[in-house]
Amino acid sequence: MFARTTTLEIQFGDCDPAGIVYYPNYFRFFDNASAGLLSAALGMHKRDWLQRYGSAGIPMVDTGARFARPCRFGDVVEIHSQITELGRSSFGIRHRLTQAGETAVEADEKRVWTVRTAEGGIRSAPLPDEVRQRLEAGQ
Q1: DSSP state for residue 102 in the 8-state scheme
Q2: What DSSP string describes 90-136?
Q3: How many domains does the chain contain in total?
Q4: 23 sits in which H/E element
Q5: Which one from 16, 48, 62, 75 is the annotated catalytic residue?
Q6: What pLDDT is recorded for position 87?
Q7: Is 86 a member of any domain?
């Protein structure tokens, strides 16, 4: 299934007083990597695929992470993101963040394709066929 790698330099503001990445920031990194993964698969910026497919977004409904080693200010890391499963309206993504070739964090996400309701809320909706086909494809 589709995969993408993102390179990121850890910024001072990403770190806690101990000088290591404050753990919630990894989830921010992974959220950006997820949007980038879909943008790469669909060949357009997130604002464009949201509009083209009438999506209200791809909220995360389940997540978990394993922390193997800390990352620090100035580290250059790679986030390897890959689609792991496709459901009717949901999909899984696995992120592996590496620093100097070693795994620092692994995380799994489950996200749901959503659309707006007539009342302005959101609800899950089936993945559009074109989106499904592109997420199933390898790089």
Answers
A1: E
A2: EEEEEEEEEETTEEEEEEEEEEE-EEE-TTS-EEE-PPPHHHHHHHH
A3: 1
A4: none
A5: 16
A6: 96
A7: yes
What's residue 47's pLDDT?
94
What's residue 137's pLDDT? 87
Gap between the Cα atoms of 23 and 63, Å rounded: 13
Q: Which residues are registered as beta bridge partners of 15?
A: 21
Phi and psi (nearest 5°) for 133? -60, -40
Q: What is the structure's pLDDT at 129?
A: 94
Full domain range(s) for residue 36: 3-134
Question: 28, exposed or middle or buried, with CB in 10 Å at 0-12, 13-18, 19+?
Answer: exposed
At 9, list the tokens. 């330099």
Domain with 112 in it: what CATH number?
3.10.129.10
- 134, HSE (Cβ side, Cα atoms, 13 Å): 15
Q: Is 16 a catalytic residue?
A: yes
Predicted confidence at residue 139, as pLDDT, reads 58
Tracing tokens 């996200």 back to the chain, one arrives at 111
Report d(CA 19, CA 73) in Å as an integer.
7
Residue ranges of the chain with per-residue pLDDT less than 50: none
- Identify residue 46 by its one-letter amino acid code: K
- Structural tokens at position 41: 């698969």
Give domain status of residue 139, yes or no.
no
